[in-house]
Amino acid sequence: MYWRAACRTIADGAFPESSIAVLLREALRHYPGNAALLALAGEPSRQNSEVRVLCLAAQPGDKARLRLGAEYREIVRETRGSRVVPTIRQAVQYEDLDACLYDARPHILHFSGHGTAGGEILLEDHGGFGHPLGAAALARVLAAFGRLSAIVLGSCHTAAAARPLLAVSDVVVGASGPLHDICALHFTRHLYRGVAAGEPVARAFAAATAVLDGLGCPPHEFAIEEAA
């Protein structure tokens, strides 16, 4: 009844800056699995559709070693048997990005590795050392492959990159400051537990950060930005 009344009000011209399409899109953002809303939007049900996750890892030789293998084992373990399909690419260089995106055609992009104080992620160069990549450059590459549902940046200081990446993703998750290995593992485990259960990334994020404090990890280590 609420949605019918809201649609009728908009159709009557009460909110000229809005439209039925805008209202429907916003409703789907909050209730992505609702079959009635999907039918109104002319979209197939998402209940059984794949959610493809492209997991990119970089471990430059001039930086401290991280437990990236353990993090990806968590993603594989938590999503096994669900509609979430992870694709893992390691030792990623900048020029590998388009090939990885062509192969996986992801809905969610997950990066694990090091970040700089300025919010850049560190890929690898041809010598295996760090190659910084800023949010604007990453957004330009991603824009050629269509809009993503979410970008998860599991590296230090990447919350600074979140807002620019909203140009190509509905949700962007980053770390507010230094990110400890064990906290990254806990966060990844509980985030993808929620995604595998069918929750939108924003809700899975809220649940994952709620659990962190009891595990000895400050939940404010992580930040989320959502497109308006």
* Fraction in beta strands: 15-25%
| Beginning-to-end CA distance, first to last residue | 25 Å
- Cα-atom Rg, whole angstroms? 19 Å
CATH topology of the largest domain: Rossmann fold
State the name of the first-level CATH class of the largest domain: Alpha Beta
Count of beta strands: 8
CATH architecture of the largest domain: 3-Layer(aba) Sandwich
How does the major sheet shape up? 6 strands, mixed
Q: Spans of 5+ residues with little confidence (pLDDT < 50)?
A: none
Structural class given helices, strands, pairing?
A: alpha/beta
What form results from the Cα inertia axes?
globular
In round numbers, the mean pLDDT is 86
Number of helices: 9
Q: Can you write the helix and strand succession as a string?
A: HHHEHEHEEEHEHEHHE
Strand order in the sheet with the most strands: 2-1-3-6-7-8
Give the tally of structural domains: 2
Query: Helical amount among residues, as a percent range?
Result: 25-40%
What is shown here, in short?
With 228 residues, the protein is an alpha/beta fold. The chain has helices at residues 2-11, 20-30, 35-40, 68-79, 97-104, 135-143, 162-165, 181-196, 201-212, and strands at 51-57, 84-89, 108-112, 121-124, 130-133, 148-154, 169-175, 222-226.
